[in-house]
Amino acid sequence: MNDKTQLYITATQTWLTSVIIAHNICPFAKREQERGSIRFSVDQDIDIETCLMTFMQECERLDTDTDIETTLLIYATAFKLFDDFLDFLEIAETLLYEQGYEGVYQLASFHPDYCFEGAKLDDPANYTNRSPYPMLHLLRETSIDRAVSNYPDVENIPQRNIELMRTLGMTKLQSLLAACYSSSTYS
Fold first, then answer.
1. Mean pLDDT of the chain
2. Residues 156, 88: Cα–Cα separation, whole Å
3. Strand, coil or helix: what is 107?
4. Contact 167/128 with Cβ under 8 angstroms?
5. pLDDT per residue over 86-112, tens digit each?
6. What pTM value is reported for the model?
7. Tens of pLDDT along 30-74?
8. C-beta separation of 14 from 180 below 8 A
9. How far apart are CA 187 and CA 183, in angstroms?
10. What contacts 88, CB < 8 A, 6 or more positions away?
11. Cα-Cα end-to-end distance for the chain
């Protein structure tokens, strides 16, 4: 692993710890982080086809490596524009289906400029899905089912997160995200 790759991973790990886990945005993340079962993969390509191949390779890795519970696939240089990332996400979801992974893996998406449909750009609620870099989160469907069945009020998680982000406010959230870059000394 080269130094640049490690910097992207460090920023993402900082985000996972200081934003997602610290604020309990995903109540299932802490367990996997403590178990060391989260894979961080970095794709530094900008070619869409190559990015899709890397995505499929990560699915295949999950097929064979049961020690990996979930993968954060970080796109370090591609998809700087959120709309381009959304286009890529649509293609990735179609590919997931076409390759027979429907019901096997699920995708979540994160981006530095993430904006929920119908939301204003400056709505703090967008920070539930804002991250240091564009990334896809590959989750095992069986793990989701297991986690959901053992967690009370799972349907209230999104609303709780929206309220929390709005309570924290833009200044705090921008500061938390900016600190992820400074922890890795690279953005």
1. 94
2. 29
3. strand
4. no
5. 999 999 999 999 999 999 999 999 999
6. 0.94
7. 999 999 999 999 999 999 999 999 999 999 999 999 999 999 999
8. yes
9. 10
10. 48, 51, 78, 79
11. 18
Could you give the CA distance from residue 8 to residue 24 in angstroms, rounded to a whole number? 22
Q: How many CA atoms lie within 13 A of 113 on its CB side?
A: 8
Exposed, middle or buried, 4 (CB in 10 Å: 0-12/13-18/19+)? middle
Q: Which long-range contacts (CB under 8 A, 24 or more apart) does 21-25 make?
A: 23/164, 23/168, 25/128, 25/161, 25/164
Count Cα neighbours of 93 within 13 Å in the Cβ-side half-sphere.
Answer: 10
Max alpha carbon distance in the chain (Å)? Answer: 43
Predicted confidence at residue 186, as pLDDT, reads 47
* Alpha-carbon gap, residue 33 to 11, rounded angstroms: 15
Taking a C-beta distance cutoff of 8 angstroms, is the pair 70, 139 a contact?
Answer: yes
Whole-angstrom distance, CA of residue 75 vs CA of residue 62: 18
Of the candidates 111, 122, 110, the residue with the CA atom closest to the CA atom of residue 170: 122
**Is the CB of residue 73 less than 8 Å from the CB of residue 38?**
no
Cβ atoms within 10 Å, residue 79: 22
* Integer Cα distance of 71 and 139 in angstroms: 7
